[in-house]
Design brief:
The chain is α+β, with helices and mostly antiparallel strands. Helices cover about 25% and strands about 15% of the residues. Among the domains are: about 230-385, no CATH class; about 405-620, no CATH class; about 625-740, no CATH class. The chain has a four-stranded mixed β-sheet with strand order 14-15-16-17. A three-stranded antiparallel β-sheet has the order 5-4-6, covered by helices on one side. Helix 12 (about 550-555) crosses helix 14 (about 585-600). The longest helix has about 70 residues, at about 10-75.
Length: about 750
């Protein structure tokens, strides 16, 4: 028989209930945790989804804005396909001149915001010629709040401080604007900044709407600013120099953005970087000390002021390793275009620093500045990235009245004066700076450093000069006076080797040649005197960089070279007609004059070339007296009374504005041959006849010294009393060059 179930004690039944309840609580907790986690994940997922949508919309808006700018370039340019597959766009005249299409068309900008190029604005004036019209609708981003009450404040539109501020005495960012209160707390300015209008995005892109539209998936508004003309604060600005001489000469070079004077941004401390300001704080020194810490090695702690001010040594150190000297060496030795900070370290392990973005610059100003010194007003002039290429982009224009259409010819393959961007590398080669010239890149990639002019001296290549040579010392001092440091001047002079001069100028000096020997233009790859100067397309075909004279020829309008004398009064085949009409001779003369302008001596540079089997010489111009008049004088020969003698009497004058006012001697030198023959009327020159006066071959370079008792600052006739080292008239034996006329007998 079945046994009766034994009744459980109440205590056991209570324990079972507790266990069940515990499991219920645990299950409830797990469920709640799951639901909570699911809800959180759902919110995160939604947030990520919405953020992705926002990012996608922002990227789409950016692509649309940049696409419009690219379309503007294409609409306003002529496209030229290049050999490397790229396309070169050259601005063309669409009714307002070619210059009008070289920069973006302005729309919705303000005269009080010179950096503002364009903003999204309803019904703008752009129509696709060449810029596409705006896609903005008549809904303003500031004054027309959304359904949720959101808008972008006027101050927020200028948190970058690229626009000038209404109130220069505080740190808010409100720009001058025509908006009224409550959107603008200041007095309205009619021609000020108006916030952009919204561009509404539908599935078909930016669309102008006039009423609510359910297809709108987002909106954006924009303003475009040009930072190309702003000072890159990662480069601009130099430290105080405690040595008075170099404090003027080094910044005076103005060859680098690093020597931009930040004190010139305004007239008061409130709108410039003063050094020092009214509070004796050296704002520029603090900026340079922080930015170029490892280079300049400032003392004390940043950003301290007062007696132990940060970078105090900038104002007191006068040694050769002072911060200003270290900074100058850093600037002159920079090879990467200041695209990265100096990777050197200071004794305490610190490096140079850069502002990666504009917010860092604004933060730096907030740390060290005030409303009266390094004010936010200064930020409208500064950028954290603004670079310009050194590659020339010259393209000739056609002067009014010219019979040569240089602008049209510039795009042809054999133009003498081409658009420089059309001359591309066709064969890879190694550039002078060691870089590899890549096929398709511009042939002329950098500017020609004019410091190389110091390489050419009348004694030959500068690298061959002893440091004790007066020419070397004069060159060094001239370079220092132009802003170079003594160390860098020595580096420049030592780089003037024969090989470097031939590569960069196409010039050679006679091996072992005496002082005053002429240079010979061969071009960088020639072995003897060249007969002409190559065009840039010919240079590209050879596979090298153009030399100094080839660049001059490409840049100077060909029609302005070689004076056409039309046969002249001396015949159609004699000097000066042939020489004056030769363009290569003219280019070499201009180049020689530029060299003479740069060198410290008073000896004209001579450059020889061979245009047609006969060596010609081009001469430079120094600050010396020159023959300004020549006129004949004739009468009974002092040598043979039965004969008639004719002489050419010349007048000397120094045409330079800074001509010496002190008495000096002038040495006249004759090169070439002067044909003088005897006979009566009707006689002609016979080829092969030896002229009476010869100054070529072994007799080349004959000279006479003119003793002066007054300066050449004003024209004065030459008389025999001013002449020494010359034989008596009618002239020396064959081979001589100069003769002193005997004063005529006064009847």
């Amino acid at each position: 028989m079945n046994r009766l179930h034994e009744a459980l004690p109440a205590r056991q039944r209570g324990a079972a209930l507790l266990i069940v309840l515990a499991f219920v609580v645990l299950l409830t907790g797990v469920s709640v945790a799951y639901l909570s986690r699911t809800t959180g994940d759902r919110q995160v997922a939604h947030g990520s989804f919405y953020q992705s949508n926002v990012d996608q919309l922002a990227q789409s808006a950016m692509d649309s804005i940049i696409g419009d700018l690219r379309q503007e370039i294409a609409n306003g340019s002529t496209a030229y396909a290049q050999a490397d597959g790229t396309t070169l766009y050259v601005p063309r005249d669409t009714g307002a001149g070619t210059a009008a299409n070289m920069v973006p068309q302005r729309s919705g900008n303000t005269t009080l915001g010179p950096n503002l190029i364009r903003r999204s604005i309803r019904s703008d004036t752009l129509s696709g010629n060449p810029a596409p019209p705006s896609r903005a609708s008549a809904v303003n981003s500031t004054t027309d709040a959304s359904a949720t009450g959101r808008s972008i404040t006027l101050a927020r539109w200028n948190t970058h401080y690229l626009l000038p501020k209404t109130n220069p005495f505080n740190n808010d960012s409100y720009p001058p604007s025509p908006l009224l209160a409550p959107f603008n707390p200041y007095t309205p300015v009619p021609n000020g900044f108006t916030p952009p209008d919204w561009v509404f995005v539908t599935p078909t892109g930016g669309t102008v709407i006039t009423s609510p539209n359910n297809s709108v998936i987002g909106r954006y508004a924009y303003a475009i600013y040009d930072e190309g003309g702003l000072l890159d604060v990662n480069v601009a600005g130099y430290p105080t120099d405690a040595v008075a001489g170099t404090a003027v000469t080094w910044p005076g070079r103005k060859g680098s953005l690093a020597y931009a004077d930040l004190r010139a941004l305004g007239t008061t401390d409130a709108n410039r970087l003063s050094n020092p300001d009214a509070g004796s704080i050296y704002q520029v020194d603090r900026l340079v000390g922080w930015r170029n810490y490892a280079t300049t090695r400032p003392t004390n702690n940043f950003p301290d002021t007062g007696g132990q001010a940060f970078a105090r040594n900038f104002q007191t150190d006068t040694t050769i390793t002072r911060p200003a000297a270290l900074f100058c060496s850093y600037v002159l030795g920079n090879t990467n275009g200041f695209l990265s900070a100096n990777n050197g370290t200071s004794p305490n392990g610190r490096t140079d620093q850069t502002f990666v973005q504009r917010q860092e610059l604004i933060g730096f100003r907030k740390t060290v500045g005030s409303t009266s010194s390094f004010s936010t007003n200064v930020l409208q002039y500064l950028s954290t990235f603004s670079r310009e290429t050194n590659a020339p982009s010259f393209s000739p224009s056609t002067p009014a009245g010219s019979t040569i259409d240089y602008a049209a010819l510039a795009s042809t393959s054999t133009a003498i004066n081409p658009n420089f961007l059309f001359r591309r590398v066709t064969t890879s080669f190694t550039r002078f700076d060691g870089a590899t010239a890549v096929v398709g890149e511009p042939l002329v990639k950098t500017r020609f450093p004019l410091s190389r002019l110091a390489w050419i001296t009348y004694k030959g290549p500068s690298a061959g000069l002893a440091t004790t040579d007066p020419v070397y010392q004069a060159l060094s001092q001239s370079l220092v006076n132009s802003g170079e440091s003594a160390v860098h001047a020595a580096t420049i002079i030592s780089a003037g080797t024969a090989n470097n001069i031939k590569r960069c100028f196409g010039l050679t000096f006679p091996t072992g040649g005496a002082a005053g020997s002429p240079w010979t233009y061969t071009n960088p790859t020639g072995a003897s005197a060249a007969n002409r100067i190559l065009r840039l397309d010919e240079v590209a075909a050879v596979g090298r960089e153009p030399d100094f004279f080839e660049l001059l020829q490409a840049a100077i309008l060909s029609g302005s070279l070689g004076q056409n004398t039309g046969g002249g009064v001396t015949g159609g085949n004699v000097f000066p007609d042939i020489h004056m009409s030769n363009t290569a001779h003219h280019i070499l003369s201009i180049g020689a004059a530029i060299i003479d302008q740069a060198d410290p001596d008073s000896i004209p540079t001579r450059i020889q070339f061979n245009p047609s089997g006969t060596v010609w010489t081009a001469y430079g111009v120094e600050n010396l007296p020159y023959i300004t008049q020549m006129y004949p004088i004739a009468g009974t020969s002092p040598n043979t009374p039965a004969q008639w003698a004719t002489y050419l009497l010349f007048q000397l004058w120094n045409p330079h504005q800074n001509a010496s006012t002190l008495p000096n001697n002038v040495r006249l030198r004759v090169d070439g041959a002067i044909g003088i023959f005897t006979g009566g009327n009707g006689q002609s020159w016979v080829n092969g006849t030896t002229p009476q006066i010869i100054a070529n071959g072994n007799n080349a370079g004959q000279s006479v010294t003119l003793q002066l008792t007054s300066s050449f600052s004003a024209p004065a006739p030459l008389t025999n009393t001013n002449t020494t080292n010359a034989a008596a008239a009618p002239g020396p034996a064959p081979g001589g060059a100069f003769a002193a006329l005997v004063a005529p007998t006064v009847p």
